[in-house]
Design brief:
By secondary structure, the protein is an alpha+beta fold. The protein has one domain: Glutaredoxin, CATH 3.40.30.10. Helices cover 40% and strands 19% of the residues. It has 4 helices and 4 strands, in the order E-H-E-H-E-E-H-H. The protein has a 4-stranded mixed sheet. Strand 1, helix 1 and strand 2 form a beta-alpha-beta unit. The longest helix is centred in the N-terminal third of the chain and has 12 residues. The protein is globular and about 35 Å long. The relative contact order is 0.22.
Length: 89
């Protein structure tokens, strides 16, 4: 299974949607709350240049974007193989 990291903030609807999609797929993820740790916001901006909003999602170190991009990958059938390469066929 892939290593999934998500930068979030409290009360963020897009963050909740992204986490819900991942949880619904049984994916464990590491969550970084940028409100509680300003250094995490700086880290997020360094890892995803130009991205200042949350969520920002990384799968195996690759930046996939935010909530909309995550759902788009899922709709295109590209998310599951990223999360578990054994389903790539």
């Amino acid at each position: 299974m892939a290593i999934v990291e998500i930068y979030t903030s409290p009360f963020c609807g897009y963050c909740s949607r992204a986490k819900s999609l991942l949880a619904g797929k049984g994916v464990e993820f590491e969550e970084f709350n940028v409100m509680l740790s300003p250094t995490k916001r700086s880290e997020m901006a360094a890892r995803a240049p130009g991205a200042y909003t949350v969520p920002q999602i990384f799968i195996d170190g690759t930046h996939v974007g935010g909530c909309d991009e995550l759902y788009a990958l899922d709709q295109q059938g590209k998310l599951d193989p990223m999360l578990d390469p054994s389903v790539a066929g």
